[in-house]
Specification:
about 100 residues; alpha+beta; 2 helices
Length: about 100
C-alpha cells in the first residue's frame, strides 16, 4: 500500500491562504487520486475534498459503501504525515509568481 500527499498549489494574499494537495492512495488493486483544498483566513481554517470520477454503483447501499471506502483511503493518505511537511521551496516559488 502506498499513500502520497503532494502540495500542488499554494496561494496567499490579503484574502487568506489556500493549499491544494494531490492525494494518492494505491492499495495494490486500484489507485485513487483526488484533490484536497485547505484554506484559511484570520486563523479560521477549512478543508474540502473534491471527489472526481466516482464510479457508478448498482444500488444505494453499494454507492454508500464505495464512498466510505474512498473516504477511508483518503483519510489514511492525509494521516500519513505528509501534510505536516509543507514543501517550503514550492511555496517560495509560488510566492515569486505573484
Amino acid at each position: 500500500m502506498h499513500s502520497k500527499c503532494k502540495l500542488i498549489k499554494y496561494e496567499c494574499d490579503q484574502n487568506g491562504a489556500r493549499y491544494e494537495y494531490q492525494l494518492t492512495h494505491d492499495n495494490a488493486q486500484t489507485t485513487l487520486e483526488q484533490k484536497m483544498i485547505i484554506s484559511g483566513k484570520n486563523g479560521d481554517w477549512a478543508a474540502e475534498v473534491e471527489l472526481k470520477e466516482f464510479p457508478a454503483q448498482t444500488n444505494p447501499v453499494q454507492a454508500g459503501e464505495k464512498l466510505a471506502e474512498w473516504l477511508e483511503r483518503l483519510a489514511k493518505t492525509i494521516r500519513s504525515g505528509a501534510i505536516v511537511d509543507l514543501d517550503e521551496a514550492f511555496i517560495e516559488r509560488e510566492k515569486g509568481r505573484s
